[in-house]
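Section 5: illustrative case.
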């Protein structure tokens, strides 16, 4: 109501036109900048189609009914369908949109028949409103389904649900009370839907842009915590993960095992076979270790040939089975062109609640030092002085 008193319908139409054009240009630009992001092109096209759609509605009464009713209806349906398709692609959801296309076809048939044959705009607007409500409802459902802990997507979904209710109410209102073909007529019944549509364009564009920005930040964060050679976490990333787990056991108790893993005789591999072979060895070892980890374990490249393994909810006794799998997987690696075996020295410890990260890492490093001085290709355990040596656990976890 406040918008109606501030603006006439021509101003509302102009704002819709400008806003749709701005978002179309914005998303086209983002599509060119981030070609790997699926769906942005469809969303850009949806806003782009809104530009001539709004323009043709604005010219209602000046141009033929075909251009002021049927064509805008087609453009509006195509715009909403493209947005829904783009959203699905952006979310990685490959669900077909066939049911929505069927609904669009039925609505278009209504528009063509009642707009050009019967010259009755009420069924046309009602059909468009019901189809738009369906599209918005499906969009809201998908957003809430994929939202998980992402607040911006949950808000987007709830906003779309409110717009869905608005479209349903408008469809029933049009079917019951009728509607005027003159969209520039200044009245509450004409101006309020225009104001709502303006708000929809604004919020939809801003929310989708926030989704793109959030994904960009996620990628940047991931790349800043990922080792480019091995694909494992880098030192910063694994230390952040370790910090989270240390805080978890300090808060709620439980167990946490930490292992430092060193590739044996890595300098000889580099000196004998070259740095390319050394990189290949590091990659193979990282892949072998990762293939034997559980979903909640974390591996990070801690140094040149050293890895840090974080094993949440794992006692030092349980860690032995994980380390056995890792050492066996590494020993069985075959890399052509050399006779040097790939083996590991491992130092493992169990963190205690409340201790600094540095203290746990120092123990793991001392255990690794013991493994190297014991002849390598083995593991050593060093616990905190307050912990008891676990039963049935040998100091040497694996020996070739």
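Designed sequence:
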């Amino acid at each position: 109501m406040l918008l109606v008193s501030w603006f006439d319908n021509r101003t509302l139409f102009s704002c819709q036109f400008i806003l749709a054009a701005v978002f179309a240009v914005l998303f086209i630009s983002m599509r060119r900048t981030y070609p790997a992001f699926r769906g942005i092109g469809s969303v850009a096209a949806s806003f782009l189609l809104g530009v001539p759609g709004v323009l043709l509605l604005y010219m209602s009464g000046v141009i033929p009914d075909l251009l002021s009713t049927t064509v805008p209806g087609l453009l509006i349906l195509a715009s909403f369908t493209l947005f829904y398709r783009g959203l699905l692609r952006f979310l990685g959801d490959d669900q077909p949109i066939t049911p929505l296309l069927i609904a669009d076809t039925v609505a278009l048939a209504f528009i063509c028949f009642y707009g050009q044959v019967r010259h009755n705009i009420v069924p046309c607007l009602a059909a468009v409103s019901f189809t738009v409500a369906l599209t918005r409802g499906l969009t809201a459902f998908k957003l809430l389904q994929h939202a998980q802990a992402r607040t911006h997507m949950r808000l987007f979904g709830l906003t779309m649900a409110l717009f869905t209710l608005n479209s349903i109410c408008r469809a029933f209102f049009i079917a019951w009370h009728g509607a005027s073909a003159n969209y520039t007529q200044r009245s509450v019944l004409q101006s309020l839907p225009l104001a709502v549509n303006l708000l929809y364009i604004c919020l939809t564009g801003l929310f989708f842009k926030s989704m793109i920005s959030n994904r960009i930040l996620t990628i940047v964060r991931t790349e800043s915590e990922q080792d480019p050679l091995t694909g494992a976490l880098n030192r910063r990333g694994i230390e952040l993960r370790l910090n989270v787990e240390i805080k978890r056991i300090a808060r709620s108790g439980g167990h946490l095992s930490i292992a430092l893993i060193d590739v044996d005789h890595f300098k000889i591999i580099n000196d004998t076979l070259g740095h390319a072979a050394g990189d290949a060895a590091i990659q193979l070892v990282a892949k072998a270790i990762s293939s034997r980890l559980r979903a909640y374990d974390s591996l990070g490249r801690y140094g040149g040939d050293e890895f840090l393994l974080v094993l949440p909810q794992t006692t030092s006794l349980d860690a032995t089975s994980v380390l056995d799998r890792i050492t066996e997987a590494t020993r069985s690696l075959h890399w052509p062109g050399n006779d040097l075996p790939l083996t590991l020295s491992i130092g493992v410890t169990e963190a205690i609640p409340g201790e600094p990260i540095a203290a746990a890492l120092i123990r793991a490093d001392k255990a690794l030092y013991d493994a190297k001085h014991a002849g390598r290709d083995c593991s050593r355990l060093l616990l905190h002085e307050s912990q008891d040596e676990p039963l049935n656990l040998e100091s040497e976890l694996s020996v070739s």
